[in-house]
Specification:
By secondary structure, the chain is of the alpha+beta class. The chain contains 15 helices and 25 strands. It has a five-stranded mixed beta sheet, with no helix packed on it. The chain has a four-stranded antiparallel beta sheet with strand order 2-10-7-8. A hairpin with a 2-residue loop joins strand 15 (about 290) and strand 16 (about 295). Helix 2 (about 105-115) packs across helix 14, helix 5 (about 145-190) crosses helix 11 and helix 5 (about 145-190) packs antiparallel against helix 14 (about 405-445).
């Protein structure tokens, strides 16, 4: 940090010259509790909030203590995040407490560290995980303005951040509203309320139409014919079971209930072959490649193109890809592989479902991703050690409210139109949130380069503040030595007596 780049009256200091630093230490495990006995026990970034952390454990025999309004800094995996200590607390080895002296506001140090978090992180060491040593933290350089200016800087940062936070909150609400709107569109689509029904249009136009029950019979007949043409290789045909309509809600006119199995030509698990990062091969889609009802090709693994598993699991346009194993809230997410997508196969945590032309895979995908599909998946999923699973049998049994084919086309077109509008709005919100974060960093950068508030030539310079802190420390040290000396003399007199 260069003194020449700072305004007059500022000083370059190291952290240890302006603050006390207390490095955390883990107390004995038997002193932890979750009953509120002892001091709050703070261990790291996981407990941090925007400004203050939230304790989830307490300690009855603390080793290292942070006082109220100490700046807490994460010094292990990750390095750099900061909070203020809300009350006297025990701190573990993942944290250090920074206690400003000489009247320096805690929030000045907090915001100063947030302004230079990336720089601080560059001082970290470690191979398994990042950490910063106490000496590196104590010798870390900070720019100190005069004390009065420090208070003005903190006040201006918080004024600007308050306005910025209000804008960010509005953007977050817009994000949440878009998610709710998306869910509402999918719900309406699968309840027959998004587009005019085929039955109504047929009546108004004085024509006949094919109800979904007839369409389903046609699909089943085609399915049976395909199977029977391969009877010698595949054995006897088994008619898929009907869904239990008595447990299902009434459908719009012309619709019919069908299962995924009834509508599908094939349900197939993906490859368990280990993929690599060698981009010369064929991409293997995994659970992370399904995002918000679409396939994301930004993070891929690959199989060698000559691997026999590639041919078996190569996706075809129109294949629905279903995530059979994931966390409970994500299991069952689905997307459709499109003709415009790059060639790809799929991994074992995914299931491919192929459909005939009489059933649009996008419509089925919309239903599975809708709140109705999510509710069904929540009922049938099995769970072990934080992972949920919906196997091929349960997928096959999902009941689908099937509209007439012409209505499927209109539903898919309208959903895609509305989702496209929503995606544009989401992109705008995301860009605005990114701009807000850049503005936040710009405010901090200006603050700690002397450009956020005006300087006052009458302010006591920071060098005098640092000198006063040194003098106060020396006086405290002398007083401590005097107390120890008197205690020693009393001890000698007692021994002589």
């Amino acid at each position: 940090m260069n003194q020449q780049n700072l305004p007059e009256g500022w000083a370059v200091s190291i952290m240890a010259d302006a603050c006390q630093i207390v490095q955390g230490q883990s107390p004995p495990g038997e002193t932890y509790n979750s009953c509120g006995i002892g001091l709050p026990f703070l261990q790291g970034k996981a407990e941090f909030g925007e400004i203050y952390p939230t304790a989830i454990k307490w300690c009855s025999a603390p080793n290292k203590i942070a006082e109220t309004d100490d700046v807490l800094i994460s010094i292990r995996a990750p390095v750099g995040p900061t909070n203020l200590c809300p009350a006297r607390s025990c701190i573990g080895r993942g944290l250090a407490a920074i206690r400003p002296e000489g009247g320096i506001p805690s929030r000045f140090i907090l915001y100063s560290l947030r302004a230079t978090e990336q720089e601080l992180r560059s001082n970290s060491t470690g191979t398994t995980f990042d950490a910063i040593r106490g000496e590196a933290l104590r010798s870390y350089g900070i720019a100190l303005p005069p004390l009065s200016e420090q208070h003005r800087i903190v006040a201006e940062i918080e004024t600007q951040f308050t306005r910025l936070d209000a804008s960010v909150a509005a953007l977050r609400r817009a994000q949440a509203n878009l998610k709710r709107y998306r869910a509402s569109v999918l719900k309406d689509a699968c309840e027959g309320r998004l587009v005019p029904s085929e039955a109504e249009l047929a009546r108004s136009e004085g024509r006949e139409y094919e109800p979904a029950a007839v369409l389903l019979e046609r699909i089943l007949a085609d399915r049976r014919k395909r199977w029977e043409s391969q009877e010698k290789r595949r054995g006897k045909y088994r008619e898929p079971s009907d869904p239990d309509a008595s447990t299902l809600p009434q459908l719009p006119e012309g619709w019919a209930w069908a299962t995924v199995e009834q509508l599908s030509l094939r349900i197939q698990y993906g490859t368990s072959r280990k993929a690599s990062s060698d981009a010369e091969g064929v991409p293997v889609l995994r659970m992370g490649n399904i995002q918000e009802g679409a396939l994301d090709f930004s993070d891929l693994k690959y199989l060698p193109s000559q691997d026999e598993e590639v041919e078996k699991t190569l996706l075809n346009p129109g294949d629905l890809v279903f995530n059979r194993t994931n966390s409970p809230e994500l299991v069952g997410k689905s997307a459709v592989y499109k003709e415009s997508h790059p060639s790809a196969c799929f991994a074992s945590y995914l299931i491919r479902v192929a459909f005939p032309e009489a059933c649009l895979p996008d419509y089925v995908c919309f239903f599975i991703n809708s709140q109705h599909g999510r509710a069904y998946i929540a009922q049938v999923r099995s769970q072990q050690v934080g992972q949920a699973n919906v196997n091929g049998t349960k997928l096959a049994a999902i009941p689908i409210p099937l509209p007439p084919l012409a209505e499927q086309w209109r539903i898919v077109a309208e959903v895609e139109r509305q989702l496209s509008v929503m995606q544009q709005a989401e992109a705008t919100v995301d860009a605005s949130l990114a701009r807000a974060e850049r503005l936040r960093q710009s405010i901090l950068k200006q603050a700690f380069s002397g450009k956020l508030v005006p300087q006052d030539p009458g302010d006591e310079p920071a060098s005098a503040l640092l000198e006063r802190i040194r003098a106060e420390r020396e006086a405290e040290a002398q007083a401590s030595l005097a107390v120890k000396g008197k205690a020693g003399q009393r001890g000698k007199r007692k021994a002589a007596a």
